[in-house]
Amino acid sequence: MDWMLKELAESVPQTRHVVVLSSDGLRIAQHDTEPDTADRLAAACAGLQSLARSISDVFPGSTRQLKMIVIEVSGGFFYLMAAGAGAYLAVAADEGVDAGLMGRRMRDLVARIGAHLTSPPRSTVDGSAI
């Protein structure tokens, strides 16, 4: 999966980190990102998903499913996008990034490989889902 993440990072100037994570905030893959940084971003995304589900309650008929979050902070942008069953694509980029280009490239990547970016629920010893 690294080459696909590398392609995203190299096609959008000023990309810092690209991480694929499970819905419970565990890192699945990353490109050109230290494991500790990728783990920290993945764990923070679990909280963002929870907030998105709470916010979705204000939209009648919502399925409470996160599609995309964009956060702008001093110094850059953070993107979180649903990428398959139980998987998400997270990207951090510098403040000069072309935000529209980043969104398009992330959507393109998810469309191309979304079926492969899945994280099935883990199960306990007795086979029940966690």
Task: Flag low-confidence runs.
Answer: none
| CATH superfamily membership | Dynein light chain 2a, cytoplasmic
Strand percent estimate:
25-35%
Kindly report the spatial arrangement of strands forming the biggest sheet: 2-1-5-4-3
Largest sheet entry: 5 strands, antiparallel
Q: Report the CATH architecture.
A: 2-Layer Sandwich
Could you give the order of the helices and strands?
A: HEEHEEEH
Distance between the termini: 26 Å
Quantity of strands, as a count: 5
Q: Would you tell me which CATH topology applies?
A: Beta-Lactamase
Total count of helical runs of at least 4 residues = 3
The percent of residues in helical segments reads: 25-40%
Mean pLDDT, as a whole number?
A: 87
In short:
By secondary structure, the protein is of the alpha+beta class. It is built from three helices and five strands.
Q: What features would you highlight for this structure?
A:
alpha+beta; Beta-Lactamase; 5-stranded antiparallel beta sheet; 3 helices; membrane; Serine protease inhibitor; Mycobact_SerProt_Inhib_Rv3364c; transmembrane; transmembrane helix
Please provide a written account of the structure.
This is Serine protease inhibitor. It comes from Streptomyces smaragdinus. The chain crosses the membrane at residues 69-91. There is one protein chain. The protein has 130 residues and is an alpha+beta fold. The protein has a single domain (2-116), classed as 2-Layer Sandwich (Beta-Lactamase). Helices cover 36% and strands 28% of the residues. It is built from three helices and five strands; from the N terminus they run αββαβββα. It has helices spanning 2-11, 35-56, 99-113, and strands at 15-22, 27-31, 68-73, 76-84, 87-94. It has a five-stranded antiparallel beta sheet with strand order 2-1-5-4-3, with helices on both faces. Strand 1 and strand 2 form a beta hairpin. Helix 1 packs antiparallel against helix 3. The radius of gyration is 15 Å and the shape is globular. It starts with a helix and ends in a 17-residue tail after the last helix. The model has no long low-confidence stretch (mean pLDDT 87).
